[in-house]
Structure to design on (96 residues):
């Protein structure tokens, strides 16, 4: 058996405490009422998406919601794994 350890932040996926993730993630900030912001969840993964004709506006939209996410993370003592986080910009080609 593994030795017991205290969990200071988050919980390993598949662990017994990890089963509580849906409970505390239920109050994750809802950005769907904000124009051009959508959030999607799968297991313990979260995707935040912004739609705009101007890619810089999408980045600004996402930047504006970061303080709300930081507040939620502080409340639940959840750390975002920045090594597994990324920004992806998808846009139409301007080539005609």
């Amino acid at each position: 058996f593994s030795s017991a350890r205290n969990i200071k932040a988050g919980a390993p996926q598949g662990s017994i405490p990890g089963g509580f993730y849906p409970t505390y993630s239920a109050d994750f900030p809802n950005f769907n009422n904000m124009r051009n912001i959508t959030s999607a969840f799968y297991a313990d993964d979260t995707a935040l998406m912004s739609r705009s004709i101007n890619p810089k506006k999408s980045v600004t939209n996402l930047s504006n919601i970061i303080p709300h996410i930081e507040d939620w993370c502080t409340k639940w003592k959840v750390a975002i794994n920045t090594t597994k986080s990324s920004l992806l910009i998808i846009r139409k080609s301007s080539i005609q």
Q: What stands out?
A: Residues 56 and 89 are 10 Å apart (CA to CA). The longest strand covers residues 37-42. The chain has a mean pLDDT of 79. The two ends are 62 Å apart (CA to CA).
